[in-house]
Amino acid sequence: MNASRLCREILTLLPSSIIANELKYDEALLAVNNHLLQPITLLYVSDYCYKCLLQPLLTLPAAQTQPANHTVIISTQFALTFYVLRGGGDEQPVCSWKQLYGEHGHYIVSVQQNNGTVQCYNHVGRSPSNNLLPLLCAFVSLLCIWGLYYFTAYVFRLACTHKLLKQLKKKTGCESKDEPDVSVGQRQNAETPKHKRLLSLDTFRGFSLMVMVFVNYGGGGYWFFQHAPWNGLTVADLVMPWFVFIIGTSVALAFSSMLKRGVHRSQLVRKLTWRACILMVIGVFFLNYGPADGPLSWRWARIPGVLQRLGFTYFTLAFMHTYFSKPTLEPVESHQRTAAVRDIVVFWPEWIIVAALEIVSLCLTFLLPVPGCPTGYLGPGGIGDDGLYPNCTGGAAGYIDKWIFGPNHIYNYPTCKELYKTTQPFDPEGVLGTINSVVMAFFGLQAGKIILIYRKSPLKILCRFFIWSILLGIISAILTKCTRDEGFIPINKNLWSLSFITTLSCFSFLLLGLMFYVIDVRQWWGGQPFIYPGMNSIFVYVGHSLLASYFPFNWEVKNWTSHYEFLGQDLLGTSIWILVSYLLYRKKFFLKI
User: Rounded to an integer, what distance in angstroms lies between the CA atom of residue 228 and that of residue 153?
Assistant: First the structure.
């Protein structure tokens, strides 16, 4: 049959509402045409779904005078593999194909028999749209705004601009007679703080926070701005580990400064305990539920959460560092025998404690018996692993959380629920993962120690950051076997697996080192605009969570068929928080706990 004729025939059978209105973003239309004299069943599986059972998509009756037709909406996020079974469900498919479909495309499959062999012919009824075009437009727009900002700042720094402004003030009579004639350089020196702040750390924190705000608001509806269904990494999986890493670096720098000022260790313990408790209280009572959930009920209230994990991680790390930190860390000299490993040797008790925590975590993960599940299971359950362990989501991690908190007090909508068809609750901020978040923060603490000990030699700081990133990257490659699902310990944000920690710590050392070189060493960039939310991170995080469902951060979207409005909405919400943090910076308001 002629392909164009087939397309016209099938599309005429489709309701106009499906063609015009029902396709949302990340969706395509698949029309199946059965020419066989037996009924067929179409099964499918997503390539991202590891060892998953085939899922039924549709069943078509046998062809009569005309081919049997049916149309379904399919996802375009991941590649799909289809199998056609004939009759009452033959064990062997008569044909199959694999394809990554494009957004809003109309695709036609014709199942025919030629010379005794069943074949599946694929045709394109309508070409897909370019779903990355909104991202390109947003990137170009933001680049133009950024370029305009720096061009304007450069113009205002010119001496001729200052002279022109001074002349305009004289002509308009706006110049203050008592205002001294201060040069630009003197003004900049006057504004320079007495104690040099590590601007790259604030910038790194602000960058991580703004990416977190963007993905929490929806990430424009793009799947790679959402959390991975189970194993693997997306952009959304990067930001919280970066934030945890920054907590460790901040602890090293802040505690060193307070100890130098003579703050007693008992005062530090009271301060860190108070801060950790406040973070946990905010997380439990303000961020775990919203107005749409109605009055808080302890029958279903979630106990773990992001701020709870950050609070516990901060408390554990800070409490340990309070008793093993040094009041003074003299810069290391190259002739000293321990120069190459001084940042490790000086703090050997901390390394023993963290190693013991990780050993406990690994033993619980791989040795704890879980009823009805294989020991050491790391999968999502559901239809994964050939459907053998449907109720084993998360293995020991999920079992421990349900035992400690109860199934009604942990997260009931894990990222694996849709793809793997899971039915069990699983909390990505659970107990075992929190132990590994302490390890992640400890690597950040190590970065802070390197900055303190080698502060007189920025090149040595950069070299050690690079060495740590290479070492952690090698460990990740060994643990994962450079694969997503086949390694000893796959990268998994839900479990906060060891390979996830080493991989994200590798990225953190690289990114912090790059920002340190560009901002603090070469001073090519001041960290704007990310440095402003980085200085008010608690305010921005809590604020964006509480106001996420209100205008102007959220409104009724009219066009569900593309990413444009979703992306604009999420970028606007993120930009508003950058503007708010800038205004707070100008007012010298910094929320601290």
Answer: 40
